[in-house]
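# nightly structure sweep
# worker-07 picked up a monomer target from the shared queue
# config: single-sequence mode, recycle default, output format = structure tokens
# input follows
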Amino acid sequence: MNHDHSRHDSGPKGFWGSRYSIGLIVLGAIAAYFLLSEHRAHFFGALPFLLLLACPLIHVFMHHGHGGHGGQQRPDTSTPPQPPKTGEQP
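# output follows
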């Protein structure tokens, strides 16, 4: 008796393709509902601080630090230019 498993196994799905991820999303939605319904005053009181905390996180993750604004390449300043040797034309 031979079974063909090739049409059932399309490769590893990973975590987000499994049924556990659906359970995690449902539990997270239920927890978020109860947290917001029972602790609404605490949540809205902390919201301005969460927005202030989001500013540096957005800067780091969206701009990738200070190296890539506008797609311009910065010149390499790690080694200073060498002066021309005596007798050579620049």
